[in-house]
Specification:
Shape: globular
Number of helices: 14
Distance between the termini: 40 Å
Order of helices and strands: HHHHHHHHHHHHHH
Keywords: Cell membrane, Membrane, Transmembrane, Transmembrane helix
Main location: membrane
Protein name: Lysylphosphatidylglycerol synthase transmembrane domain-containing protein
Structural class: mainly alpha
Helix content: over 70%
Subcellular location: Cell membrane
Strand content: under 5%
Largest sheet: none
Number of domains: 1
InterPro entries: L-PG_synthase/AglD
Amino acid sequence: MQTSRHLLRPLGGVVFLAVAFWRFGSGAVVDALRGIDGSALALAAAFAALTTVCGAWRWVLVARGLGADLSLRSAVAESYRSQFLNVTLPGGVVGDVRRGVRHGRAAGDLGRGLRAVVWERAAGQAVLAVLAVGALVLVPWVFRPGARAPVSAGTSAVAVVAAVAVVGAVTALLLSRGRGRARRLVRLVAADLRVGVLSRRTWPGVVAASVLVVAGHVATFVVAARTAGVTAPSPSLLPLALLVLVAMGLPLNVAGWGPREGAAAWLFGAAGLGTTAGMGTAVVYGVLVLVASLPGAALLFVSHRTTRRGGSPDRCVAPAEPVVDLEADVEADVEGAARG
């Protein structure tokens, strides 16, 4: 059953991608790819460096908030490795799991290392969602006379409020009726949020880093759109970029491909820019991100060679995996967070 779920996620991405190419064609995509040049690749690499450093900084803040030491240098190196794995392996999260495991092993607390990555990514997605809703509310929809936003601001606000209400109701239910390990896990989540994400020492930096990460991704999207021949004003592309980034967060993808192309084609079509322009932009974006992640491939190669020689490539790696009692880990962390 577990294996089936793992296979369904990349299969969903394949279906998304196949339907998108079948529906919108591949001719425009080929033309868009021909527009990729050295300047586009250089800009993508520069924006990738910005997002990588900011994402690593966010990870360091969350990890330290949870009581796990992590240097910015190690975080940047691991983030580059993670990005390369995410854009080359199915699911789009393999690299994040890997860096969480490596950090947890190095810190001697596998559970805490994994949770630091989970909360770091969740914080980034939360900020992205807020920015996407804000763009829909504040940015005029000026693509063409009479054009309508594919998702209205009111609908977006209602969706966000509904999602928060559902999460709150589920949490309250677990707190009131949950017993045993489920209740301890809920308490751990609350403690992690309080000390690892929402503390006064952490949340301003997490929000700032997340905003910069989103800005870097949006800038790369605009570069991809220009490379694909889209001439719409950059402010008009802002809400489209944010919504496509939200779609990219869906786990039904193959190394990031699938929902991104489908969402871009639909959004660009609804905005009057043409579905083929959306497909071309999304595919060019994927190629730019892949090329910009190649430093991670080099770091993986160096790490592999160093490990084979018996060394430790950086401080984020431990020579052996400690034995972890997850239930004891949960109880200890809850008690420690309560005391803190």
